[in-house]
Amino acid sequence: MASAGLSLKAPRPRTERVVYWVLLVCGLMSIVTTVGIVAVLLGETVGFFQEVSFAQFFGDTQWTPLFADKHFGIWPLLTATLLTTVVAVVTALGLGLLAAVYLSEFAPERLRRVLKPLLEILAGVPTVVYGYFALTFVTPLLQKFIPGLAGFNALSPGLVMGVMILPIIASLSEDALYAVPASLREGAYALGASRLSAIFRVILPSAFSGIGAAVILGVSRAVGETMIVAIAAGQQPRLTLDPRVPIETLTAYIVQVSLGDTPTGTLEYSTIFAVGMTLFLMTLALNLVASRLRGRILKGELR
Fold it and tell me: Using an 8 Å Cβ cutoff, are 257 and 271 in contact?
């Protein structure tokens, strides 16, 4: 029975129709925007590959489309992107999992409600701030301990990107751990397992799907990061796995060409769409995998 102060009036048909169409337009806008982005990328990329063969794009090991001696091998940009991403994920994975385990298994509920929002504040820091922090603080600090570390390098922005994606991995992993049924914990304790043994042998494996989805989302965020690598990693495309030297990632190259010095309509300008399509396909694949893992959680397949 409704309380005296609560009015439960049925919405009028006209109001329902207005709300329906507003929600439909909002939903269609996101679809139309995505389709438009894909159409622009695809159209420009097809034009690029009409002049540059797939053999040049995937078979060459040099990327110098802005030089007189032009090479269009994507591998220097790809390896640089993967290098900074690996450094970021290695940094964030350990810290993020430890933070998630503490928040879900050890922290009191009142402290958890305070610490988790504070941790997620890191996600709201502008990436340009992270970039200058990496360039002006982290790099000089690392140069005191790592010989041969250049002023622009892959290590410093990779570490700072790890801090940037830390809230993603920690928060989503903590949600996955918190969702593990209490019966699994009680069963482990009943069999004589210690608290740490129950965490690492029962709870973490049970939340593997959620943790995997958190890591993949963090990877896709790191792959698409622009300002940190554009500021602190340099703009020297080279095929290397040495994190101490300057590199250029996919996103940093797009920034370089988009500054306005390259005339539109030229082959050099079209390279940013080929690079953008490569980046789009990478992040799309990662997001699809993450979505599938999160779907397993919703279905209760925690294993």
Answer: yes
* Geometric angle at alpha carbon 211, from 210 and 216, rounded to 5°: 100
State the DSSP code for 245.
S
Alpha carbons 194 and 201: distance in angstroms, whole number: 10
Q: Mean pLDDT of successive 10-residue segments in the chain (303 residues)?
A: 54 76 89 89 89 89 87 92 93 90 85 84 87 93 90 93 91 86 84 84 85 86 89 89 91 85 82 90 84 66 45
Q: What amino acid occupies position 42?
A: L
Q: How far apart are CA 218 and CA 224, in angstroms?
A: 10
pLDDT at residue 92 in the model: 92
Cα first-last separation, the chain: 43
* pLDDT given at position 111: 85
Phi-psi label, residue 286: left if phi above 0, alpha if psi -120 to 50, beta otherwise: alpha
Structural contact between residues 256 and 271, judged by C-beta atoms closer than 8 angstroms:
no
Q: What are the residue ranges spanned by the domains of the chain?
A: 75-298
CA 299 – CA 296 distance, rounded (Å): 5
CA–CA distance, 122 with 199 (Å, rounded to integer)? 26
* Strand ranges inside 192-287, DSSP E: none
DSSP state of 52: S
Indicate the fold that domain 75-298 takes in CATH.
MetI-like fold (1.10.3720)
**Cα gap 287→282, rounded to integer Å:** 9
Report field, pTM of the whole predicted structure over 0.70: yes
For residue 1, the model assigns a pLDDT of 47
* Amino acid 208: pLDDT: 83
